[in-house]
Design a protein that fits this description.
Helix content: 55-70%
Number of strands: 0
Number of helices: 13
CATH topology: 2-methylcitrate dehydratase PrpD
Shape: globular
Structural class: mainly alpha
Number of domains: 1
Largest sheet: none
Order of helices and strands: HHHHHHHHHHHHH
CATH architecture: Orthogonal Bundle
């Protein structure tokens, strides 16, 4: 992508009197040498893949390790029984985030958004919004362009790799992308989009990547829920005209610096954190004996 900073996208959008999503679409057309229709339909295909993954969630499936599976159905049942602590929207987001992440662990088809380990955040927010607000499909596709633009800047100026920047680079990035997308869907302006991004990312700074047994399962699946909920919370703050005291691009730069300072043992190597707890070590031993 041709943009390294969020303020560049906002500046181009304002100068040309175009929405955020349109700037990203045009950049994609230039980069891949495709028409606007082709670009838009490619993104629509991503949306359809998310919808299909959600629709075909199988609560009977468990990952090969046996560590995850079926929890999405538990959250759905809890909501349908009227026990939820939240409203329908947030409750659906939670269960869809788990379902998508469990599907990934069970080797089903998902959309890396921006990574497989963080695949539950963005679709959980978008698909729940679609169900609750009855948003036209084209608007969901445009929201995906907004998220893609944010994700591209994060990848270019920082990282979206857990091995390079810790889980802040995966769940944090996904949460920031989803926050910006929600603001767009709610009719927020470009400044609100990038401030929602900053607010969401700030809450995830320093998050370590410490998967048990080196699998994208524990604690990854449940972290997707936290990232999705965080996205909506921060979007609402931005829509209420609350701004990040630290400019969005400086927040992204901070994530890059923090990622470099996180010890290698906490960057997807399984050398510290939750990965070396007594229970985690027992799990590793049991899996090695299978």
């Amino acid at each position: 992508m041709g943009y390294k900073y969020l303020h560049e996208i906002v500046s181009v959008a304002e100068k040309n009197d175009k929405p955020f999503w349109k700037i990203i679409l045009e950049d994609d057309c230039t980069e891949r040498n495709v028409s606007e229709v082709e670009s838009f339909e490619t993104m629509r295909g991503m949306l359809h893949a998310m919808q299909e993954a959600d629709m075909h969630y199988d609560p009977t499936l468990h990952s090969a390790s046996g560590l995850v599976g079926g929890d999405g159905a538990k959250l759905e049942r809890f909501r349908l029984e009227g026990k939820s602590l939240f409203g329908e929207f947030m409750s659906q987001i939670m269960e869809k985030a788990v379902k998508m992440s469990e599907s990934n662990a069970c080797m089903k088809r998902i959309v890396a958004a921006p990574t497989a380990g963080s695949c539950g955040v963005l679709p959980a927010v978008l698909l729940s919004y679609e169900e609750q607000k009855q948003l036209p499909e084209d608007e969901l596709v445009k929201a995906l362009f907004v998220a893609a633009g944010i994700g591209s800047v994060l990848a270019e100026s920082s990282s979206i790799s857990g091995a390079e920047g810790g889980c802040q680079a995966e769940i944090g990035s996904a949460s920031a992308m989803a926050a910006g997308a929600v603001v767009y869907m709610e009719g927020g302006d470009n400044e609100q989009i990038i401030h929602a991004t900053a607010l969401a990312l700030k809450n995830m700074l320093g998050l370590t990547c410490d998967p048990v047994a080196g699998l994208v399962e524990v604690p990854c699946v449940k972290r997707n829920v936290s990232g999705a909920v965080n996205a909506v919370v921060c979007a609402q703050m931005a829509l209420a005209h609350i701004k990040s005291a630290i400019p969005p691009d400086e927040v992204i730069d901070s994530m890059r610096r923090i990622g470099k300072q996180i010890p290698a043992c906490l960057r997807e190597t399984g050398g510290e954190g939750l990965a070396i707890t007594p229970t985690a070590q027992r799990i590793v031993k049991e899996l090695s004996e299978k």
